[in-house]
Protein 1
Amino acid sequence: MKTKKFIILPIIFILIVVVIYAFSHRKTDINYETAKVEKGNIVKTVLSTGTVNPVTLVKVGSQISGKIKDIYVDYNSPVKKNQVIARIDPSLYEAEEKKAGADEESAKASVEKAEAELCYAKKKLNRYAVLLKDELVSKDDFDIIEKEYKLCLAGFLSAKADVSRAEASLKRAKTNLNYTIIKSPVSGIVISRDVDIGQTVAASFQTPTLFTIAQDLKKMQVTADTDEADIGCIKVNQKATFSVDAYPSLVFQGIVTQVRNAPEIVQNVVTYDVVIDVNNPELLLKPGMTASVSIVVARKKNILKIPNASLRFIPPFEEELKENTVWKVLPDGKLKPIPVKLGIFNDRFTELIQGNLKQGDRLAISIGKESSKKHRIFRWR
């Protein structure tokens, strides 16, 4: 019995030592995926999507109603300022102009007639004034002649007013007749044509759009829908780049020229329009294209930067993420928590402002695959 006891006790002791050693070294047996603290540049960008449009887009309409008689331009037609691009049937408006002209002539004739009657009434009044002075007529007779004179004067003034009304009507008729000729208000290119020959346009309630003209397609702008969380970083004159699906290998350069204050709210999502001007000398960009926009909002050069993955890493012996803490991998494989103060960031790196780290230090970003399997077996809760 004593012999067995002496054999069993050492074996139990050895097993206890092995178990203690295994559990005391369970952390150092874990391999970590690491990334180095680097020195370099960081460019922070804001991403959004937008629509390409001409800087100046003019909608050409009609101020009068009528049937389209002629169209002289089509899609993509270049036009000059004041060039005739369409015509509305002028028949009705020509007739109105003739009528207004005849009314003006009639009103002028009425003025001449009233003026002649006024001249006669004045002479008669003067004669009666002399007769009244010599007491050759009664005061009542003179008052009657004076009344006739005043009536003639009122008739003359009324006739002159009729001439003014007739002239205004004629001017309006001529203006409406001129409106039958649709001219381009600017030099540019026709983007869209919304009417056909024979179509009737009605301008009674609102001005119908006949054509849309881009003033200069060599200068375009992108209106980008920017999330409210990012709008505070964007300022006028910041540089921006964007791409369009039509030319996936090309990157277009632009400048932020306007940050609009009016919010766009769609399904409780708030965005703001950011306008980016871009040159389009080769006319590659076309109105309506969808642009994937990247706006440079901050840039730092020759700084220490840490990988973003290190800020999301949770060691196996921690239950939750420690904010603004990274885990440095020491030479013996153990982890050391390092509090850090952070600056600007992009999708890969974050600026290190303060923290006991130097260039080349290794930071844990994940647990190695083999260690992950062991960790799932031995991790204590």
Protein 2
Amino acid sequence: MILKALRALATPLILMAVLHTFMTANIPGRSGRKLTVLLLTNTTVAIVIGLLVANVIRPGTWGQINKPAGEIAGGVTVDPWSLVQTSVPDAVLKPLVDNNVIQLIVIALTFGIALRALKSEQTKQGKSDYKPLEQVITFLYEAIIHVLTWVIVLIPLAVFGIVARTIALEGFAPFKSLGAFILAVLLALFLQACYYLTRVKLGSWVSPARFLSGGSDAFFTAFSTSSSTVTMPITFEALQTKVGLRESSASLGALVGSNFNNDGTALYEAMAALFIAQVIGQNLPFPQQIIVILTSIFASVGAAGIPNAGLVTMTLVFSSVGLPTQYIAILVTVDWFLDRCRTAINVMGDMTVSCLLDGKQPKSAIEPALEEALAIEGD
């Protein structure tokens, strides 16, 4: 019942999240382009790392997990041209009914970009006709999240039932694969953290030691709350007071970027898809793994404020490559811990983007040089 509720909420949730993000995010032009490139690069690298670790370690083959109850959908064959053809839906609301992920992403991005352009035009003209629609989108988005929190409250009961039934019928053997999956995800998250530190070292004035010590409060808060949104004020303050970034860089990375930057969540979803494919013996060829990458990127947009975002949007990722969503019930048992780990990586990604936007010259080094230049010009 909980999985059915998550599947029912996933498609409207992602649609409204993307529209809400496009309508409410305040991104300046030049910095916005650089921010977009950084976010897409970080998320793509995270997913590639996750798929690489999952392909090498193959945690789904370490143990035996029996088929869950319910009808299991078969895999899908990938034809690139038919994928392009079917990406345009027959009707606007059809992807919501059919749970078609690719079509849903096309609809969400199309209307999101269009609404953003109209808002920009009206803002330049001094009009505010867009505000009622923005308020409606915000209201519906928050309403869906409110309903989702009711479902999330029931997840511990689902975990208890799944674990109790599995141990009673099959013993602890099925948890060998889950243990391997946990280790694989932790290894991938560690590699992503190393990638962040390398980017910070090479692309900004901040040293990795300063980055880790200054962001420790944000990392621990993210791990303990499993929410990037709750951690956002602490991240913003740490970037300014402890790391020493400019306010503009800190706000773009921690406040704006956090709505798009969910690298840990995207990494986890890609690894979960490959893990379940290995468990059921279904081969995911390279084209299907590309679809997993694209779906994970778009499904993670706007997911920062969604509780247990990875668990919710995972239904979309699974559906995009024909994996049975019934197996998500198995992953629920370990999601509590992994959700906290990937949230800490999400916050680390936000801080990395802020450091890269701040450049290779610290604020304290630029201001005296600027004052000296002004003094010379005055003389």
Protein 3
Amino acid sequence: MTDSHTFAQSSGARPSKFVGLSNYFALLATKDFQHSLINLIMYTVVFLLGTLLVGFLWAWLLDKPIAGEPIFRSTFLFPMAVSFVASGVVWRWLLNSAQGDRATGLNRLFQIVGLGFLQNSWSSNITFGILAIALPAIWQLSGYVMALFLAGFRGVSDDLREAARVDGASEWQIYKSIIFPQLTPVALSAVVIIGHMSLKSFDLIMNITDQRTYSTKVPAIDMFNFMTDGDYSNSAAVGTILLVIIAILVVPYLIHDTRSRGK
């Protein structure tokens, strides 16, 4: 079968038929897919804000030359070199929901240090399970955001900083009025890159939980499940919805970047 399933109804080997946009309306009306979209929004917001905050703070600390900076920089960047599959396996153990005498991972650590009240079900939590998945994602990509911001910090001319000091500006005023405004393009690039990565998250979530785990379902997981079940029309519909969401995020940035280069 060579025709597209995006606007067709098909299951298994049955011939497809054109159904227009009904696949999308039916999919968006289901509670399961709405839950996946809500999870995706929560995951994206926490992942994005977490990586921006942690990455920016690391870059700010490393902006001033310190002893052993290459070691710190390499340490912060190291998680990015680990595949999401490998880190997912490790974080699956760290986020184990077992508590009490059977506790492992973070729950066991909290128990040992006397903070047992912090133990929770992590990714098994129906309401906030997806937020636990954002923790390893933040850990893995913060170093990359740090590298972007650090390059932005180092791109500000030392002569400009010195001229501001001669005019009597404090270090905070230099950062606030000169350096931070020049980091806007870097921040925008980080938002687009991290944002589109979060929207298509799949392997990290699959390796920490399971493809059928309701609490951590996102559209990419739904697309895989539909494909596994032979429901190619809904699988194609989910893929198209993700493409549209990513395009809404990326296309305005590309237009803005193109116009900026043309000036």
